[in-house]
Every structure is written in C-alpha cells, then in structure tokens.
Amino acid sequence: MIWIELLIAGLFETVWATTMKFSQGFTKVGFTIATVIGMLLSFYFLARVTKILPLSLAYPIWTGIGAVGSIVIGVILFHDSLTPLTWLFVGLLVVSIIGIKITSA
Description:
Structural class: mainly alpha
Oligomer: single chain
Radius of gyration: 15 Å
Helix content: over 70%
Largest sheet: none
Number of strands: 0
Shape: flat
Order of helices and strands: HHHH
Number of domains: 1
Number of helices: 4
C-alpha cells in the first residue's frame, strides 16, 4: 500500500505542475486553487510515505514520477516537442525509478 501512496503523491505532483502552468503565473484563481490543493495532497502523501520508506528512496521516486508525468502532460496538452534523444533519457528515468523500487529492501 505504501508504494501506491507514493505513486499517488507523484501523480499529484504532476497535477500541481500542470495546473500551475494553466494558472498563468497564478493569475487564474481556479487553477491557482487547484495548484495549491495538488501541492498539499502531493506533500501529504509524500509525508505519509516517508514515515515508512527512507527518504533516499521516496524522494527520488516521487520527483521521478512527477518529472515523467509532467513530460507526458507537456507533450500531450501543451504540444511540447522532444527529440528522440530526449525520449531516450525519459525512458532511462523510468527505468531508474523502477530500478530504485525493485532494488529497495
């Protein structure tokens, strides 16, 4: 269950990053509120996870999920363009996240 909570924390990191972009520098109130709620939920779940998992595992996985999620959202919603080499490194990031999880005790 703790790994699911870590996944949820990472997904909420993607949510707040996305809504922050939509807030246009915190000038759109609805998206600003959504950003703050996403941050609070992301930090809440991360805080719960770090009660059990070491910070050295939880934090990089949390940021990795948020990074990969933000990249995917950027490509889909904002039409960001990534080179094939960049996609290779995104793939390596995913492999690294999985590797950290698999090799943790």
